[in-house]
Design a protein that fits this description.
It is a single chain. The strands form 9 sheets. Strands 12-11-13-14-15-18-19-20 form an 8-stranded mixed sheet, with helices on both faces. It starts with a helix and ends with a helix. Helix 20 packs parallel to helix 22. By secondary structure, it is α/β, with parallel strands linked by helices. The chain has 5 domains: 274 residues, 3-Layer(aba) Sandwich (Rossmann fold), CATH 3.40.50; 182 residues, Response regulator (Rossmann fold, 3-Layer(aba) Sandwich); 49 residues, no CATH class; 51 residues, no CATH class; 263 residues, Rhodopsin 7-helix transmembrane proteins (Rhopdopsin 7-helix transmembrane proteins, Up-down Bundle), CATH 1.20.1070. The protein has 26 helices and 29 strands.
């Protein structure tokens, strides 16, 4: 490799000279990301070339680059600022040497940054405690806001101005540290070259997060926070104000592209959608800028996030005025949000109400007096000072220009107010100030100033050769406090603490635009506490006091959920009502949440309320009617009992087996009353009582009727006299009734012992309500009780049917047969109705069956007898009962 370099070093020299000193666009065309590889190869070749000719005398290629402002000292700090914002380039060819680049359009703000660096250096030189007896010089170059001129500037800082050095090439830079540049892309280009020599670069304004890569930029530091934090802060800002639909425009360079990519990623995490993202380049065509503005105008969002450097901001605002772009809420990055040049120009009307994060404002005592002393007389040959003076007072020192105000030199800076003299918003200037002091403290530590063993003195251990790697090491370890009380240090990536102020553009009483701090952001705080507002009212777009709304779709109210529209961003959605049993209790809910099992959604579907508990109660109409019929049946049965008791000695009652008749009436009374246990809220005791009481009372009733029927059959089928049969069968009747009833009692006891009924909240049958019912515990037990009653009823029906034609004027078997038919019909109908009835109607069906069958038994068996006892007493005789007067009656 060295042999190839040696044989072709003349060709290499021409390429390097053409590229890095004149800015040949064939190799250094913007944007920066397209030239990184080329610059890397060129710097590698330069390094190998200088290594190969290490023993040769150094000779400069091309023309030297001279600083705009300089001063000699024991130590030298380089500076690179975008003092001019525009460059003019002529076309180049392979035969003619290219013309030098010419920078124009002086930036008073950047010139203030350069003067701030000079002020800090002079302040350090006058200090007796910092670098005592060591003077600091400076070399300040103009990067012109371009990577081409930044390349020339860094080469000038590395090389010096002599054509030949007269000594061997040692690779030692002429500066010990560099402050700058003002753009991320320019800083990256400078680092590609200065990094070879490991010369530390401290930027005051390069915020690209990519510069925090220590592997790629090990000698880079900065005094302004990284865009890694600012982009996230902007995402939290738009989310805080409810703007979920925003537009974005950025500088087409490392600063804008990296910053916007981080913002979009953070905004997506916050649920914010970007409608469009456009890029602007300061060197781009007018048509491209017009297209960007048209996209912004046609967008539906009312919030525009502008991640732009000042040069691109100038281009965008000029076109925005032409196309009358108004009504937008601007959200800006720190590069322009506190730039006074926009607040005092025609752009103020467009930008009033803007919001953005800026680094904290500071006070630098003595800086204003120093700036007001700047005058062309300080350096009569310095064309930059003359240009500054002409720009400030809109005059010229050229007497030949007609119609132009002549500069006398007696003008006073105190009489004007521009970006240079205005020190009310010292933010970036403070970063320059901190950068200069950081270098001084690092050199102070490296030269062991004020340290001699364990004693303190006012001298430094001077070194003829200062290793830039040692400067980098001591810069990494600096930790000091300025006179203002601000602490300065760097983290492991070379970044400072990330703290911002939220600035709002407002108008004061004099209608001037002022920057009002309305909030803050501190990245060191826990998540959720980083962004805070201070309660100051915010002025919005067009000086409105009402916060603008910027959403793709209107908010979904509680009770609705968002449904994404196919083919559109997630911020564009339709609102769909939550389904029954689901709620959303906040606006813009992504999903509806299902209520717990015992809760249901209210009418608005905004909260879960306890489900309606349903059971057959006495308060409702159905429960009250069934209870009334139950009591009426019980009362009617008691009335019949009283009638029978009153006529107990009459032939009719005696013939009806009065003992069993009273027992049937007693059991029917219990049957009517047991239906009351089915009404009301189910409890553990009521569930066990209702089914067992129902089973036992009906078993008692059926047993009595069965005994009556068997007695009738036996009475008329026996060969003995009729009047002797009842007396003989009395014990048999009691035994049969008791036995049949005890068998039902046994069934109930087994049921209650093994699987008793219990209260149960049925949520499966009806989702919107809870049905309180009695779980049977054991279906076998329930159907066993019901089946036993059915068996007794069938037996009664069979025996009554056999006795239906017996020769008796009052044959009770006929009425028992009819009552059993009604009883059987009721309970056969009950089974399907019971199974299919929902909720409380299941209980109502069971009560209805009990009442219907009880009324059927009461009326069929006892109504005819009461009719004779009360209305036809003449038929209540023994002859009538035995049928002996039947022929006469006929």
């Amino acid at each position: 490799m060295l042999k190839i370099l040696k044989e072709n070093h003349n060709t290499m020299r021409k390429i390097l000279w053409r590229t890095v000193t004149t800015g040949d666009q064939s190799l250094c065309a913007e944007p920066v990301h397209e030239q990184k590889l080329t610059l890397l190869l060129l710097t590698l070749l330069l390094f190998l070339y200088t290594t190969e000719v290490e023993t040769a005398v150094c000779e400069m290629l091309g023309f030297p680059e001279f600083p705009l402002l300089s001063k000699k000292g024991d130590l030298t700090i380089g500076g690179a600022f975008s003092i001019h914002g525009q460059i003019s380039q002529s076309s180049s060819s392979l035969t003619d040497p290219p013309e030098p680049l010419v920078c124009s359009r002086l930036s008073l703000r950047e010139f203030r940054f350069a003067q701030t660096m000079i002020f800090a250096i002079e302040e350090i030189n006058n200090s007796s405690s910092l670098l005592p007896n060591i003077s600091i010089g400076y070399k300040i170059f103009d990067s012109c806001g371009s990577t081409l001129t930044s390349t020339r500037a860094v080469m000038g800082l590395m090389n010096g101005q002599e054509r030949t050095s007269g000594k061997t090439c040692s690779g030692q830079s002429t500066v010990h540290a560099i402050v700058g540049a003002s753009e991320s892309s320019s800083t990256i280009v400078m680092l590609r070259i200065s990094g070879i020599f490991q010369t530390p670069v401290i930027s005051h304004f390069a915020t690209c997060a990519c510069l925090s890569n220590r592997k790629e930029y090990p000698s880079f530091f900065r005094t302004i926070p990284s865009d890694y934090y600012q982009s996230r802060a902007l995402a939290k800002l738009v989310k805080h104000f409810g703007w979920t639909w925003v537009g974005a425009v950025r500088s087409d360079n490392d600063y804008g592209n990296n910053g916007m990519a981080t913002f979009i990623a953070a905004a997506t995490q916050e649920g914010v959608c970007v409608e469009y993202s456009e890029a602007i380049s300061r060197t781009g065509s007018r048509e491209q800028v017009e297209k960007v503005v048209r996209v912004i105008r046609s967008g539906t969002t009312t919030v525009l996030v502008a991640f732009l450097a000042q040069a691109e901001m100038d281009v965008l605002l000029e076109e925005a005025l032409i196309q009358n772009l108004t009504g937008l809420q601007w959200v800006g990055s720190e590069s322009w949000i506190t730039s006074g040049q926009y607040s005092k120009k025609k752009f103020a009307g467009i930008l009033t109400g803007s919001l953005g994060f800026a680094i904290k404002m500071a006070k630098i005592p003595g800086l204003q007096d120093f700036l007001l002393q700047v005058h062309p007389r300080q350096e009569p040959q310095d064309m930059l000072l003359q240009e500054f003076w002409e720009e400030s007072f809109e005059c010229t020192f050229q007497p030949s220009l007609l119609g132009t105000k002549q500069c006398s030199g007696n003008e006073r800076l105190e009489d004007i107010n521009n970006s240079f003299t205005d020190v009310s918003e010292l933010r970036i200037s403070n970063c320059v100030y901190k950068a200069a002091y950081a270098v001084a403290h690092a050199m102070h530590s490296m030269l062991k100033c004020g340290q001699s063993g364990e004693t303190f003195n006012h001298s430094c251990v001077w070194k003829d050769h200062i290793d830039p790697r040692q400067v980098v090491k001591h810069l990494q370890d600096v930790n000091f406090t300025l006179h203002s009380g601000e602490r300065v240090y760097f983290d492991k990536r070379g970044d400072p603490a990330a703290t911002y102020e939220l600035v709002n553009w407002q108008r004061n009483a004099a209608r001037d635009v002022v920057f009002v701090t309305v909030g803050s952001y501190d990245a060191s705080q826990p998540n959720g506490q980083q962004f805070t507002m201070n309660g100051i009212n915010i002025t919005w777009v067009e000086e409105s006091q009402k916060r603008p709304l910027s959403v793709c779709s209107e908010s979904c109210f509680p009770g609705f959920r968002q449904a994404i529209i196919k083919g559109k961003p997630i911020c564009c959605f339709s609102c769909i009502a939550c389904a029954a049993g689901e709620i959303s209790n906040s606006s813009n809910s992504a999903e509806c949440s299902r209520c717990p099992l015992e809760y249901w959604s209210n009418e608005d579907h905004s909260e879960c309320v306890p489900k309606v508990i349903e059971f057959l109660s006495y308060e409702e109409t159905m429960g009250a009617l069934l209870a009334a019929f139950s009591l009426f049946g019980a009362g009617l049965t008691l009335a019949v009992s009283c009638v029978f008791f009153w006529f107990r000695n009459t032939p009719l009652v005696r013939a009806s087996n009065s003992e069993l008749s009273f027992l049937v009436l007693f059991s029917l009374t219990l049957c009517f009353l047991c239906s009351l246990t089915f009404i009301g809220q189910p409890t553990e005791w009521s569930c066990m009582l209702r089914h067992t009481a129902f089973g036992i009372t009906f078993a008692l009733c059926m047993s009595c009727i069965l005994a009556k029927t068997i007695t009738v059959v036996m009475a008329f089928k026996a060969r003995r006299p009729a009047n002797t049969v009842p007396q003989c069968s009395a014990s048999l009747q009691r035994t049969s009734v008791l036995g049949c009833t005890l068998l039902q009692v046994l069934i109930c006891v087994v049921w209650l012992a093994l699987a008793p009924p219990f209260p149960y909240k049925n949520t499966a049958h009806a989702t919107e309500r809870i049905i309180l019912e009695c779980d049977l515990g054991s279906d076998i037990g329930f159907w066993g009780v019901l089946g036993y009653i059915g068996l007794l009823a069938v037996l009664c029906l069979i025996f009554a049917f056999l006795a239906r034609k017996l020769p008796d004027n009052f044959n009770e078997a006929k009425f028992i047969t009819f009552s059993m038919l009604i009883f059987s019909a009721v309970w056969v109908t009950f089974i399907p109705a019971y199974v299919s009835s929902p909720g409380k109607f299941t209980v109502a069906v069971e009560i209805f069956a009990i009442l219907a069958s009880s009324f059927g038994l009461l009326f069929c068996i006892f109504a005819p007898k009461c009719y004779i006892l009360l209305l036809k007493p003449e038929r209540n005789t023994k002859n009538q009962i035995m049928g002996r007067n039947q022929s006469k009656a006929l």
